[in-house]
Design a protein that fits this description.
Elements: H1 19-25, E1 28-30, E2 37-39, H2 58-72, E3 77-82, E4 88-93, H3 96-106, E5 129-131, H4 135-145
Antiparallel strand pairs: 1-2, 1-5, 3-4
């Protein structure tokens, strides 16, 4: 079953890269529905978050979509991008106009100008939290991942 808040079927799948370091040192969006943690930490130098970067698949991008929605306070979309060499990647944008500007600025292509995934509307969830996890919460989260 897909979580209506964080759009995932796997409630302990994130973080994907360096999970212990991410859970110990980064702010997490904690899904109020399923408890999945999603890194929402902004980089200190550029202010970018994980969702600002391209993903290899739309499925991976979907794992970070909720943090984009919350940060932008809108229902962001996942768009397919094709490089000049033909390599596909997926990137999250708050609005289609942001996607169009990106394509023009970076000399990228697309097959469709519409998102490959986007929820119908932005929803707020009262039980969601954005904070650092405690050591005990990290231990439990890893036990539940296994």
């Amino acid at each position: 079953m897909t979580c209506p808040e964080c759009y995932s079927e796997h409630f302990r799948i994130t973080p994907l890269l360096n999970p212990r370091d991410c859970l110990e040192n980064h702010q997490q969006y904690i899904c109020g529905t399923c408890g999945r943690c999603i890194c929402i930490q902004a980089d200190e130098k550029r202010g970018l978050r994980r969702w600002n970067f391209p993903f290899k698949t739309a499925e991976i991008a979907r794992l970070f979509l909720r943090t984009a929605d919350v940060t932008a306070e809108t229902n962001c979309g996942i768009y397919e991008i094709i490089s000049i060499s033909g390599r596909k990647s997926y990137k999250i944008f708050p609005q289609q106009s942001d996607f169009e500007r990106y394509l023009n600025k970076h000399n990228k292509l697309t097959i469709q100008m519409m998102p490959v995934y986007q929820v119908d509307h932005f929803g707020e969830f009262a039980l969601a939290e954005i904070r650092h996890l405690t050591a005990e919460e990290i231990t439990v989260y890893f036990q539940e991942r296994e």
